[in-house]
Structures are given as C-alpha cells and as structure tokens.
Amino acid sequence: MQTLAFEPLSTPAPPVQSGAGGCDFAADPTLRATEADVFWLPDVRASIVILAATPAESAALSFAPSDWPGLRARRAVHDGEHLILRSGRDEHQLWLPDPPQEGSSLAAVIPLDEATLQRADAAMRFWRHTTGQRVRADPSSHTRRARIDKALRALDGHLHGVTYRVIAESLFSPARIAAEPWKTASLRDTTIRLVRNGVALMRGGYRNFLRR
C-alpha cells in the first residue's frame, strides 16, 4: 500500500521519516491505532470518494473543505489531496488527484469495476453528509451487523472451548434452546454456521470489509 506523510491539520510540516529506511508513515507513529487518521488508496478500499472539478453549472457541491461538516484531516501530497470527514461513527475519506481552486464545482469519479456499487454508495453518503440530506435506514445493513456480531461472539466461545449448546444458549437464551431436542434443533445448525463464519472472519475474511 502506498503511504502518505503525516502532517498536523492546522500546521504544515515536512514529512515524518521512519528512521528505518527513510519511509514515510501513513499516520503519526506516536498515536494509538484508534487515534490515528489512516488514508487508504481507492484500489484498496472502495469507500474512498474520488472527486474532480466539473464544468457542469448544475453541480450542487463546490470545493470548500473548510465549510464541510466534520472535517478532521486534510493532506496535500504528491498524488493530490486527501481529506477525512467524520459524523458520529460514519467516516468519509476523499481523494482529489488534481485539487481544483476553492469554489470550483465538483463531481464524483466512479470507476467501473467490481466495486462500482460500493463506490457509488460511498459517493451518495458523502453527498448527503455535505448537503444535509437525511439518510434512510438500511434494514439489510442492520441485519448484517447483527449477524457479524453473533458470529464474533460465537467465535469467542469456540476459541475458549465452549460447546455449541452453551454458545447457542448465550446467543439465543436457554429457554429457546430447551424448547426442542438439541440434536435436531434448527438453532443448533445456526450456531454451528455462526462459529464457521466467525472462524472465516478470523482467518482473513475481515479483509472483505475494506471493499465496502
């Protein structure tokens, strides 16, 4: 992954060198992982929004980062300008390969590849964030998060040597598990599947989240 030099948002500074080969860091190495701003490349993470100037007079968004809500980080480096905006738990990372002048009309550039739908969704979320449009709740997203949560809880029990039945009782309540014979219970199959999904996430499946 290509790396970027770290600079404070408000005070320009020269690139921070690693001291081991002279490589630039993608983030300030003195910060904890939960505190650092990490800039991903669009070919690694599909949620990166690529922006470019457009002559279209009907464009609803202009290049004015200081006016965008939630601006957290802004980096000008050799491949353009990178920005991070945050709103609650939601994060928007932007990349402008050829930064325009302040006030220029903007358009989202969406490459036509296997991640086109994810890129378009990221662009729409950024547009709603900057224009104040309401985001409709996505039931499928809530269901997916709940399924991942259960898979990780099931994995935790499995790694600690807990039986499938005990895991199922933790996930679905002892009363539901006792309601039918365990060996033929539908929740038994569900629990085994959740453990398998958790193991798959642990063994590298988590990388798929970077494509979202």
Write up what this structure looks like:
The chain is α+β, with helices and mostly antiparallel strands and 212 residues long. Helices cover 32% and strands 15% of the residues. It folds into 2 domains: 83 residues, no CATH class; 73 residues. α2 runs antiparallel to α3 and α2 crosses α5.
Topology:
Elements: E1 49-53, E2 71-77, E3 80-87, E4 90-96, E5 106-109, H1 116-131, H2 139-159, H3 164-172, H4 174-178, H5 186-202
Parallel strand pairs: 1-4
Antiparallel strand pairs: 1-5, 2-3, 3-4
Question: Key features?
Answer:
5 strands; five-stranded mixed beta sheet; disordered N terminus; alpha+beta; 5 helices; 212 residues; 2 domains; single chain; elongated
In short:
The protein has 212 residues and is of the alpha+beta class. The protein is 32% helix and 15% strand.
In DSSP terms, counting alpha (H) and pi (I) runs of 4 or more, how many helices? 5
H-E string: EEEEEHHHHH
Instruction: Give the overall pLDDT as a whole number.
Output: 78
Distance between the termini: 17 Å
Could you estimate the helical fraction of the residues in percent?
Answer: 25-40%
| Strands in their spatial order, largest beta sheet | 2-3-4-1-5
Main sheet, how many strands, which sense, barrel? 5 strands, mixed
